[in-house]
Prior knowledge:
By secondary structure, the protein is of the alpha/beta class. The chain has three domains: 2-139, no CATH class; 145-275, Rossmann fold (3-Layer(aba) Sandwich), CATH 3.40.50.720; 290-470 and 498-526 and 568-645, 3-Layer(aba) Sandwich (Rossmann fold), CATH 3.40.50.720. The relative contact order is 0.06. Mean pLDDT is 80; it is low at 146-156, 259-271, 568-572 and 634-661.
Amino acid sequence: MFRLLMKYKGMLLIFSDMACIVFSAILSKFFLGNSAAWLPLKSAFWIILPGLLTFYIFKLYNASLRFFSLYDVISAAVANLSFSLIKLFMISYYAKNAAFSIIPDKTSIAALLIFDYFTSSFLILATRLLPRVILTAAETDLAKNYFHKLPKDCPGKNIKRVLLIGAGQAGEMVLRETKRNIILPVHIAGILDDDKSKKGTQIHGVKVLGTTEDLNHYAEKLEIDEVIIAIPSILGSELMRITRQCKDSKIRFKVLPGLSDLIEGAMLNLQFKDLNIEDLLRRKPADIDINEIAGYVTGNKILVTGAGGSIGSEICKQLLPFRPSQLLVLGRGENSIYTLLGAIKEAAETYQVEIIPLIVDIRDKKKIDSLFAQHKPDLVFHAAAHKHVPLMELNPEEAVKNNVFGTQNLIEAAHKNNTEAFVIISTDKAVNPTSVMGTTKRISEKIMSSYAAKSQTRFCAVRFGNVLGSRGSVIPLFKKQIEERKEVTVTHPEMVRYFMTIPEASKLVIQAGAYGKKGEVFVLDMGEPVKIVDLATDLIKLAGLEPDKDIKITFTGMRPGEKLYEELLTTAENTTATKNQKIFVAKTEKINEELLNKQLAKLLTLAEKCEINSMLECMREIEPTFTPNRDMLPHEATNLFKQGLKEKKLPHGKPELKIIQ
């Protein structure tokens, strides 16, 4: 029956509004008595058509009655106010033309319109809120509410008693969903929130009992089965504290997805997830200037290289809401680009962005030149790179050809075609590099700086550390080892790394692109460095196991090209602040373009000939801070290179850890 009524909702609302308009006018005349004696009853029918037209213009007939909200209430109130002004104009017009038997004064007109406004507003809102009330009541399982009141050990009862942490909007949403959704076997027994002013208040009939410090007390008192943490913006340190309390009380816990997941629609119909290590590393979300980004993204053609990778694909997703005219997604592997197209198809249609897939190897200079000449992108986000340190130590010539000369091909093409802006994704491994991969990224920064000095294109680079969940990162490896109940392998007990989530890094990269002018190297504030062994320990505990008891942590030794500490700046670099508190500008050295070009020509020849020893020496000439750590490599070239270092007495040593505050 209700579905049938909803099918003809528009027609029913029109007839309902007609009745409300007429009935309100009659009530106004009746209650105001002599003050409204001048108003003929038939005038109640004159105003029906203007009223319906006004409500139509304000789209009152488009609102969903099922989800009628405060926004719709305000819209109805404003629409009715506009209708009252039209009625004022009509009454004034007829009064001047002596259409009324009694000429009304201003006081009686005002009284009539005010009374009529509130009466008609009440009636119009009542006809729209009533269906929602009826539907909500129908969806509420009364038996379920009855079972909530039964003792926990009552036979046949299997509803989980839950303690909700968070009395904000997310917590309210959880409560509303548990009451509305009859298939959820959940009873919210109480709420905890660290805002002490909320203690004693109620949300949907559920009381805020206290703060999270009271968790263990109420978990025992209320016989809680599970804790739901409904604070999307909670910091990792706070999350860790709460989960430890849950473990002390031996209670299961689940967590609401983070803010970025909620924005992307990852949580639908209370899809709570088990806690993972990414949650424990949460920090305050990065603020970005939407207007500033829109100013250089909206309506432009954008090229993203390495679009199928972790960072590249996320940049594509983050760019779509800003409505670029075209998004050119470039990758060397067809499978990753195919996967990306499926992931962004719906968003691209929503924001009306044309997606152009390009299967291209950035080392193919002719293809890159042709691509830029044909599509003429306004902006380039260059995320394509070989990034795995140990693999690039074994294949250094491939790292050079891809990361250095592939990047140079793109930079040259952007310069020739007057591309507006070009952003290189760099790495903290480019600072005092001990690896081939890190050195190639530092050389790429130098190429970018040399072109920035002479080009109309706004070049810049963005440096940051490890991103959580990226392909080939340490966390997926640890998870796999734990799932298979194998020992967890950590390279060194003192190994430290910076971590950032993929969405946060991508947002800041896009924001930095708005700041870039003449070859700046931007450095992202990565927060506090994290010990890798601590990550491994936390992951084992999250799996419900004990480190070194259920699963052993083994130290395997540092791999080729690795160092204990990653740095964000060299000792010669300083930073200056930008408008964003998480983005800094590094002061970099001036580039001798003529010398750099000679060195690059030599490096390309050596890479193509696979003369590894000479190629590494050439890389050292271009980037003097390159201090190789290649002790584990088997081939003879490594021994020759190490011998060359000793003969030249080139400096070695552990780099100093530099943390951006």
